[in-house]
Design goal:
Helix content: 25-40%
Bound molecules: pyridoxal-5'-phosphate
Strand order of the largest sheet: 2-8-7-6-5-3-4
Structural class: alpha/beta
CATH superfamily of the largest domain: Type I PLP-dependent aspartate aminotransferase-like (Major domain)
Distance between the termini: 37 Å
CATH class of the largest domain: Alpha Beta
CATH topology of the largest domain: Aspartate Aminotransferase, domain 2
Radius of gyration: 22 Å
CATH architecture of the largest domain: 3-Layer(aba) Sandwich
Mean pLDDT: 97
Shape: globular
Number of domains: 2
């Protein structure tokens, strides 16, 4: 699959080997052009005005919501709330709902593989309320150990795990964790930031009450994210941010709020972001999610096997993974590796990947991460390896 032609950035940087898709994806021309056209011909404030451009932007915004709903197989438009990113969606869950219901004798259960944005909001609430924060620990490959499921019990208020870990790449057995949660009527939150756009994500099949993701990791612009929630649950959320667009009536001393979804979307919304997200979904659907998934799996497993065969590289995790591989060059700091790779036009991520508890637990505080997208090829992996050989030469010889 040679889709680099759809991404203008590779015309501007012909030598670029972009392997940082888990941090943020590149944007196809279809997305960039749609946003540019919107500002040239359709820009208006959504929801507010009766004039033509306002109506057009409202329509674009609503169509985007419908596209997201269909893409993740939600039941109704009101179950889709637009946020800035996955981080904001997770904070919205924490502060618009969990905060009002969490009690001292409750516990919250998180996977040790969670991204910081899926830890800190709940850690803060537990501290405030005096509730217990528990972690599901994993084996060295990142798989949650079965005996950890017992931590989910009758006092658990919420369990939250990633579908795919951005820190080690492991694909979690969501079903087993959520089946255990169902035994006690526990709220189930899935962080799908590394899955949407790469894998088939169906909120019903996944049995999630709440699910979050960021548009910018799946070809949409930065600044648009999604919170999915089952309608009856979201309907119990109190406003997160207050202001324009989320109200019914405002009196001097009191306010009544709009229905979902507007109640949770205060202020002028990011129409260009929603449009970009819809165009990204169209792009993925046109290519076919199954084909994308198959291609990325092929490139990822090629990278995994190739890196594993190199004696100076330590690769983390097993083959049950999303589209990313984490590794270290033995005895070399990942930041040094990433800098040398950059001088060979190979862009990877190095560091703790916003997963410090996981990295500390696994005892490798910093790693290199190569993450793949539909435009990556086996040749890209070969170039990564050539650049790693250069690292080896600098440090070992
Ligand atoms: C699994 C996971 N969750 C959450 C996030 C946070 O995403 P954002 O920074 O777009 O809010 C990331 C970002 O890397 C992630 O990989």
């Amino acid at each position: 699959m040679l889709y680099k032609k759809d991404f203008e950035i590779f015309n501007n940087h012909p030598d670029l080997i972009y392997l940082d898709n888990a941090a943020t994806s590149q944007k196809p021309n279809q997305v960039i052009d749609a946003i540019s056209d919107y500002y040239k011909s359709g820009n208006g404030s959504p929801h507010r005005g009766a004039h033509h451009l306002s109506v057009v932007s409202t329509q674009i915004y609503n169509e985007g919501r419908r596209a997201v709903r269909d893409f993740i197989h939600a039941s109704r438009d009101e179950e889709i709330i637009f946020t800035r990113n996955a981080t904001e969606a997770l904070n919205l869950i924490a502060y618009a709902y969990v905060k009002d219901h969490l009690k001292e004798d409750h516990n919250i259960v998180l996977s040790i593989t969670n991204h910081h944005s899926n830890i800190i909001p709940f850690q803060r609430l537990c501290h405030q309320v005096g509730a217990e924060l528990r972690y599901l620990y994993c084996d060295e490959n990142g798989h949650i150990l079965e005996d950890q499921y017992e931590k989910i019990d009758e006092n658990t208020f919420l369990v939250s795990i990633p579908m795919i870990s951005n820190g080690i790449g492991v694909k979690h057995d969501v079903k087993s964790v959520f089946d255990r949660a169902d035994m006690f009527g526990v709220l189930k939150l899935l962080d799908a930031a590394q899955a949407v756009g790469h894998e088939h994500v169906d909120v019903k099949e996944l049995n999630a009450d709440l699910l979050v993701f960021s548009g910018h990791k799946m070809f949409a612009p930065q600044g648009i994210g999604v919170l999915y929630g089952k309608f009856d649950l979201l309907n119990k959320f109190q406003p997160f941010l207050s202001g324009g667009d989320m109200i019914e009536y405002v009196e001097e001393q009191t306010t009544t709020y709009a229905d979902l979804p507007e109640r949770l979307e205060a202020g002028t919304q990011n129409v260009e972001g929603v449009l970009g997200l819809k165009k990204a979904i169209d792009y993925i659907n046109d290519l076919g999610l199954d084909r994308i998934n198959k291609h990325e799996a092929l490139i990822t497993s090629y990278a995994y096997e190739t890196l594993k065969a190199l004696d100076y590289i330590e690769v983390y995790g097993d083959d049950k993974r999303g589209s990313l591989v984490t590794f270290n060059v033995k005895e070399v700091h990942p930041h040094d590796v990433a800098s040398i790779l950059d001088s060979h036009h190979v862009a990877i991520r190095a560091g703790h990947h916003c997963c410090q508890p996981l990295m500390k637990y696994l005892n490798h505080p910093s790693t290199c991460r190569a993450s793949f997208s539909l435009f990556n090829t086996k040749e890209d992996v070969d170039k990564l390896v050539m650049a790693l050989e250069a690292v080896k030469e600098v440090f070992y010889e």
